[in-house]
From TrEMBL, chains A, B:
Location(s) in or outside the cell: Cytoplasm
Keywords: Amino-acid biosynthesis, ATP-binding, Cytoplasm, Kinase, Nucleotide-binding, Threonine biosynthesis, Transferase
Name the UniProt record assigns to this protein: Homoserine kinase
Biological source species: Dyadobacter sandarakinus
Residue span, GHMP kinase C-terminal domain: 213-288
UniProt EC number: 2.7.1.39
Domain GHMP kinase N-terminal: 62-150
Annotated family: Belongs to the GHMP kinase family. Homoserine kinase subfamily.
Function: Catalyzes the ATP-dependent phosphorylation of L-homoserine to L-homoserine phosphate.
Pfam family of the protein (one): GHMP_kinases_C
Binding site for ATP: P91, L92, G93, S94, G95, M96, G97, S98, S99, A100, A101
PANTHER family in the cross-refs: HOMOSERINE KINASE, HOMOSERINE/4-DIPHOSPHOCYTIDYL-2-C-METHYL-D-ERYTHRITOL KINASE
Length: 311, 311
């Protein structure tokens, strides 16, 4: 096997009340990495499409090749020669897990090319290194679901403890990306380091409610639990029309609506594809009223995560 | 029907990571309220056993009769005459939900005597008033499970949103009450009003893990999630030998161990009755080494909650 093409999906992290602990993958869009052996030693990026020239071409600074280098080092493979093409199919800094999708596609492609020495779970720390390269901290709430699929819970970071929970088949995600940009580091910087005990308890109640609602397929409970009293009130000020767009989603059939990742994308969850479409159209219309273009993605919860497209 | 005897079980609130949001009922012990109609108007407490004379005999200040008066007022029943006997079968200020059990037994007895005008769920706010009478705040994490049974989650207090989640049949509770006393108000007073965002995230992860672990019957996940980084580190200083007793429980088969309610009782959860007994004996032995007597209760999770013993 000398050539691999791998796909890793976009993801919604935080999921209302679940800051840093919840994330899920959607079906589309996703990044694609092409990986080929070559005769000369070392790793080179021969092309990146869709990034408007913004991602680093230096293999150590690019998260795709950065995670590959980590993996090769871990496996003690030294006499290698590879060339990499990255197709970015989602915007950078969008809140759709863009850097995670690239890193996951990279690490999955390399693992496949090497004959799958590591399991998906074992690849997780390497993919997280891609997040560290891209944003300075090794978060798992995008990488986890992009790699593993499903609705992911990160119980703990030290030690890393991550698992998936079942979700109802009829749960659909609406993802709307407005044409504005937020830097992930800024979005984290504006958060307060202290939370009131009262808000902590409220958030814990909603976390418990969302997990139980998803596992019981109790759509009312899911809806009541999609409340974030800690992060959303702060970060939403970075998204123009946030309140109006959220209201539009919920008035048009969504169970709940919040910020995807650190924004500016907004997501909604709905019962059934029709509600997800209606919510998405209402959200786009509200952004458009304020003169903001947006892209709409409707998807079920992606249960498989990253996949190999071709050898 | 002129006479009722009702039983309401002891409860474990907080349940490690779930401060103010989790609680479950055990089989025994529980308080018993006897309620009889009488010819003279008004409500009187004719006897209280097991309280060493410490509970108020004034019907408005006693939580059992206090909740009855609230219920009668709500139902607009004015020409009543009742006499009440309360059998306290657990110590006051023990962290076993003592005041909740009395209030729940009272409200269930009165509702039964009146022909059950309200459902169990509808009785909840009245039972919570009993907590307000006893401790100054209307918490639901003892009252909820004592009234409804099972493992209870309080998603929200305003509005009140409470539900139960399924737990594995083979889950057993060890409850050890050391012969020392903590005032619930003091135990609340020493808590900080602010929590670091880092600890909030850690606690949320454990809340999600405990709900998922219980619903999936994943004992390892239950065990890993029984971690409280917010409340236990503060309140445990009020309980002599806390660390040693906790270690004894976990080293002898318990999945996890923490403070029951606001203490000083400590509880453990175990897979199977044998582990629950072994953990309990080790906990008692460790308290005894420090010269502290204790009472031990082993129980499955009580799925039915309060019940009518006889008419």
């Amino acid at each position: 096997m000398n050539s691999i093409k791998a796909f890793a999906p976009a993801t919604v992290a935080n999921v209302a009340c679940g800051f840093d602990i919840f994330g899920f993958a959607i079906e589309e869009p996703g990044d694609v990495v092409e990986l080929r052996r070559r005769d000369e030693p070392g790793i080179v990026i021969t092309n990146i499409t869709g990034d408007e020239g913004r991602l680093p071409r230096n293999p150590e600074k690019n998260s795709v090749t950065g995670v590959m280098l980590h993996l090769l080092k871990h496996l003690d493979i030294k006499d290698f020669g590879y060339e990499v093409i990255l197709h970015k199919n989602m915007p950078l800094g969008s809140g759709m897990g863009s850097s995670a999708a690239s890193a996951v596609a990279g690490v999955v492609a390399m693992n496949e090319l090497l004959g799958n020495p590591l399991t998906r779970q074992e690849l997780l720390p390497f993919a997280m290194e891609g997040e560290r390269i891209a944003s300075g901290s090794a978060h798992a709430d995008n990488v986890g679901p992009s790699l593993l699929g499903g609705f992911v819970v990160i119980r703990s970071y030290h030690p890393l403890d991550i698992f998936t929970i079942p979700v109802p088949d009829d749960l659909y995600c609406t993802l709307v990306h407005p044409d504005i940009e937020i830097n992930t580091k800024d979005a984290r910087y504006i958060l307060r380091n202290e939370v009131s005990l009262k808000n902590t308890i409220a958030q814990m109640g909603n976390v418990a409610g969302l997990v139980a609602g998803l596992m019981k397929a109790d759509y009312d409970l899911i809806s009541r639990s999609m409340v974030d009293v800690i992060i959303e009130p702060v970060r939403s000020i970075l998204i123009p029309e946030f309140k109006e767009v959220k209201t539009a989603a919920i008035s048009n059939g969504a169970l709940g609506c919040s910020i995807s990742g650190s924004g500016p994308s907004m997501f909604a969850l709905s019962r059934g594809r029709d509600n997800a479409i209606a919510a998405g159209q209402a959200m786009q219309a509200r952004f458009a009223e304020a003169g903001i273009d947006s892209a709409l993605h409707i998807s079920g919860i992606n249960k498989g995560g990253a996949k190999i497209l071709e050898h």
